[in-house]
């Protein structure tokens, strides 16, 4: 597996160098034999089979299981959870000796920060958030850069010059997807129209409501939009389903290469490409660092330059426009194009 180079310096870590059976000072094999623990992975809503964000994190633990011999336990959040619910999930992992304990998604930011204080000998990780803590690894991604490339592809492949973006929840993280996509479209085809809409203003159910995304996508398709990019977790499956029923329309997937997701196989011929976040790499990096007695802590950014985000080519649907996409990628990496993280007002 390709290693992602760090672009934000990590803090020197000491949290997992204790001498207890659950600390990372021992090999994982020794720790597991002693405690029957391993890696604790706390999913965001939608669970492992969301074909998207959670699934990517799960791949990281599966790779660690195969390559490092670690044991893994996974727990899933539910709609409408409170901060106390998330803290209890993380606490249960730490109390049982799981190390590291990883929260998937920004919703775990505060709970990881709170629980990490109570378990200083356990390393915690969180994806898409930057909580404080000497024993916390914050894994963040340049979603806006990958989304820019998706915008380039959409602008070049659209027949109607009308494209759409569907976000699960209107927050700062998902706005990064929107901003990059809109900028990529407009830089490529200034005359193109981009319609951006959200399923929910501030309810995490937006990542677990395929019916709502399907209805939203149908409205866009009815208005002449022929390419829809959804950044909405499991909800995106509903959008992809709606697109699959319209001849000539395309869906753009997110987080994982959704063309290759078994649960979306029936729609794969309508998935133009996907903006891939290598969450699996970040999760594996943290687990491996503990196994090597040097647990990662601090902030680590996975960007386009270092392979943290990418645009999937499965299906060969963007082969004809790949030179233009490659040119845009080069401009971003070389700093000629600065991709915005907030949508243009």
Report what the structure shows.
The chain has ten helices and 13 strands. It is of the alpha/beta class and about 350 residues long. It folds into two domains: about 10-140 and about 280-300, Rossmann fold; about 145-275 and about 315-335, Rossmann fold (3-Layer(aba) Sandwich), CATH 3.40.50. The strands form two sheets. The chain has a seven-stranded mixed sheet with strand order 1-12-6-5-4-2-3, sandwiched between helices. The radius of gyration is 20 Å and the shape is globular.
Helix content: 25-40%
Main structural class = alpha/beta
| Tally of distinct domains | 2
Radius of gyration: 20 Å
- Annotation, overall tally of beta strands: 13
The 3D shape can be described as globular
Strand content: 15-25%
In CATH, the homologous superfamily of the largest domain goes by the name: Response regulator
Mean pLDDT: 89
Protein name: Lipoprotein
Keywords: Cell membrane, Lipoprotein, Membrane, Signal
Membrane topology: Lipid-anchor
Subcellular location: Cell membrane
Quick take:
The chain has 345 residues and is an alpha/beta fold.
Main attributes?
345 residues; Rossmann fold; 7-stranded mixed sheet; 6-stranded mixed sheet; 13 strands; globular; cell membrane; Lipoprotein; signal; PnrA-like
């Amino acid at each position: 597996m390709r290693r992602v180079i760090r672009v934000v310096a990590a803090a020197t870590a000491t949290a997992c160098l204790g001498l207890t059976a659950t600390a990372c000072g021992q090999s994982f094999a020794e720790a597991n034999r002693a405690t029957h623990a391993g890696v604790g992975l706390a999913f965001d809503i939608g669970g492992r089979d969301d074909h998207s964000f959670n699934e990517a994190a799960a791949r990281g633990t599966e790779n660690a299981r195969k390559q490092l011999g670690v044991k893994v336990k996974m727990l899933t959040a539910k709609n409408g959870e409170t901060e106390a619910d998330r803290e209890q999930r993380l606490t249960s992992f730490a109390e049982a000796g799981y190390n590291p304990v990883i929260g998937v998604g920004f919703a775990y930011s505060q709970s990881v920060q709170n629980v990490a204080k109570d378990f200083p000998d356990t390393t915690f990780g969180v994806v898409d958030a930057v909580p404080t803590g000497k024993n916390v690894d914050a894994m963040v991604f340049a979603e806006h850069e990958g989304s820019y490339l998706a915008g380039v592809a959409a602008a070049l492949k659209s027949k109607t010059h009308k494209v759409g973006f569907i976000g699960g929840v209107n927050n700062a993280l998902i706005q990064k997807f929107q901003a990059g996509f809109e900028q990529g479209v407009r830089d490529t085809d200034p005359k193109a129209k981009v319609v951006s809409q959200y399923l929910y203003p501030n309810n995490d159910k937006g990542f677990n409501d395929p019916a709502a995304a399907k209805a939203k996508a149908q409205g866009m398709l009815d208005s002449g939009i022929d390419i829809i990019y959804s950044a909405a977790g499991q909800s995106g499956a509903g959008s992809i389903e709606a697109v699959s029923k319209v001849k000539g329309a395309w869906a753009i997937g997110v987080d994982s290469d959704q063309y290759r997701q078994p649960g979306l196989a029936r729609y794969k011929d309508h998935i133009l490409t996907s903006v891939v976040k290598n969450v699996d790499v970040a999760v594996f990096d943290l687990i491996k660092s503990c196994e090597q007695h040097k647990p990662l802590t601090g902030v680590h950014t996975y960007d386009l330059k270092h392979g943290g985000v990418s645009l999937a080519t499965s299906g060969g649907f963007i082969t004809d426009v790949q030179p233009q996409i490659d040119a845009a990628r080069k401009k971003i990496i070389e700093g000629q194009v600065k991709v915005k993280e907030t949508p243009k007002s």
